Amino acid sequence: MPSIVRAVYFSPTHTTKAIVREVASALSAPLSATIETTDLTLPRQRPTDVSCNADDVLVFGFPVYAGRVPVLLRDEFAHLEGHGTPAVIVGLYGNRHFDDALLEAADLLSERGFNVVAAGAFIGEHSLTARVGTGRPDSADIAVAQRFGAQMGARLAQSRSVPEPTIEGNRPYRELKPGADVRPITTDACTNCGVCVACCPLGIIDEDDPALVDAGCLHCRACVKSCPEDAKYFSSEPTDRLIAMLESKCLERKEPQLFW
Ligand SMILES: Cc1cc2nc3c(=O)[nH]c(=O)nc-3n(C[C@H](O)[C@H](O)[C@H](O)COP(=O)(O)O)c2cc1C
Fold first, then answer.
1. What was the pLDDT predicted at 69?
2. How many independent structural domains does the chain possess?
3. CA-to-CA distance for 253 and 88, rounded, in angstroms?
4. Which sign does the torsion angle of CA 225, 228, 234, 235 carry?
5. Based on the domain organization, do 104 and 150 belong to the same domain?
6. What is the DSSP letter of 205?
7. Do 22 and 125 share a domain, yes or no?
8. Looking at ligand 1, which atom is closest to the CA of residue 67?
9. 207 and 131 inside one domain
10. Atom number of ligand 1 nearest to Cα 250
11. pLDDT at position 68, please?
């Protein structure tokens, strides 16, 4: 049976998507596989089930939030079903650290019937401040992603029984503190164009009045980054403190780390 590389990702500000696409594309060539993409970012696009058989390969990508897999995404694992399917994890982080996120993703995928064969921690521009991880992933990151995918594809073409690598991280995972109720602020520059409404992963921005935002905001900044009028921003003391920490301690370039 021809195999399918299933590229599944959550990517509000598109950096995860950029790396997953490169890895999946390079991985598919040695396997002569087709690529099927599932974008979990928007509520209306989230599928009920993604079932993978043993001939397929899953490339699963997510942004690291607070050193963990985003909470919203954890429910989505229930819809993924593997049957001994090899899985490659792509975790995108904003040049601080990925902490336990890759290990947590590996545990969640193993519980769903996948054999984790590799994991990569890549760097993207930090969604909270463009001064950290600026311009990442860049051409050097893309080249690493392509090599990672190609070499993993070649290994899997030789044998499907690749042992699970030791992935950096700790159990119990980094503790998650309850998030503050942060919501984007909308200025008078808003023209009600609806771009932010359409790109919100939670669908919590009011269609008729985009200044109204329900509770539960992820702080992913998709609305801020996509607004053509720069009419949305965040402002809260805890966030401003975090941004100041990132801008003072996390400017030094980190490189992708591969576990395989
Ligand atoms: C709520 C939140 C928490 C984050 N936590 C971390 C973190 O713990 N470590 C880190 O290096 N980057 C962190 N980031 C930055 C993202 O991992 C990074 O911007 C990523 O590239 C976003 O992926 P996307 O473009 O696919 O949405 C966080 C971003 C947000 C919005």
1. 98
2. 2
3. 24
4. positive
5. yes
6. B
7. yes
8. 8
9. no
10. 11
11. 98
Give the distance (Å) from ligand 1 centre to CA of residue 126. 6
Q: What local confidence, expressed as pLDDT, does residue 2 receive?
A: 60
Ligand 1 atom index nearest CA of 96: 11
Residue with tokens 């200044």: 211
Instruction: pLDDT tens for the chain, 260 residues: list them.
Output: 569 999 999 999 999 999 999 999 999 999 999 999 999 999 988 988 999 999 999 999 999 999 999 999 988 999 999 999 999 999 999 999 999 999 999 999 999 999 999 999 999 999 999 999 999 999 999 999 999 999 999 999 999 889 999 999 999 999 998 888 889 999 999 999 999 999 999 999 999 999 999 999 999 999 999 999 999 999 989 889 999 999 999 999 999 999 99
Within-domain flag for 244: no
CA of 127 to the centre of ligand 1 (A): 6
Question: Residue 64 CA: which ligand 1 atom is closest?
Answer: 17
With b for 16 or more beta-carbon neighbours within 10 A and e for fewer, the 34-67 pattern comes to eeeebebbbeeebeeebebeebbbbbbbbbbbbb
Residue 147 CA to ligand 1 centre (angstroms): 24
Closest residue by Cα to atom 31, ligand 1, is 220
Q: What angle do CA 193, 195, 199 make, to 5 degrees?
A: 160
Between the CA of 121 and the centroid of ligand 1 the distance, in Å, is: 12
Amino acid occupying residue 256: P
Interval between CA 159 and ligand 1 midpoint (Å): 34
- The domain in which residue 85 lies consists of 4-172+254-259
Instruction: Tell me which residues have their CB closer than 6 angstroms to ligand 1.
Output: 11-16, 63-67, 92-97, 124, 126-128, 219-220
**CATH code assigned at 51:** 3.40.50.360
